[in-house]
Description:
Layout: H1 31-58, E1 64-73, E2 79-86, H2 92-102, E3 114-118, E4 146-147, E5 149-151, E6 157-165, E7 170-178, E8 188-199, E9 204-213
Amino acid sequence: xxxxxxxxxxxxxxxxxxxxxxxxxxxxxxxxxxxxxxxxxxxxxxxxxxxxxxxxxxxxxxxxxxxxxxxxxxxxxxxxxxxxxxxxxxxxxxxxxxxxxxxxxxxxxxxxxxxxxxxxxxxxxxxxxxxxxxxxxxxxxxxxxxxxxxxxxxxxxxxxxxxxxxxxxxxxxxxxxxxxxxxxxxxxxxxxxxxxxxxxxxxxxxxxxxxxxxxxx
Length: 217
């Protein structure tokens, strides 16, 4: 039986190599995931508009916005792009870490390049200092966050792509960018909570985190 070359497996799974930068053409993300991403983006822009007004009155403003994308790499070689999965949240500790580095206070913002994940479901809070329930022994290697591959998509964007591999089953619902590789420590720059990503032994999740920093005033 002949198969149209444009046909795709059921569920939008794409059996192909993952782009090095961690992004796919938008049409390679299943429609329901695209709709979910667009809804997240719309909520983000409404949130920024409200915060922009409030912080404008306070005389502060909005400095940075994080966006988190994910792709599941199955043990059997299947690749499942999930698209945009979260648009929250840079933490108080992360901002303090940046200011300390700027003040030459012994911090180094370039260390914010380690990807951790977990199974906590509490909503993000800017006061968060860790993931709610960070994954440790289900990771391969154990208790080790993924080191990101850095890039700069544009002059005002920082991107880090990190891949976490699992040697057990987990329902991953949270992600964080940290300042150290070992789980259980370091400063949390950004925490994201999202719908469960179910993984099994041999699966991996590639996370793509992009922080956009705004100029002007």
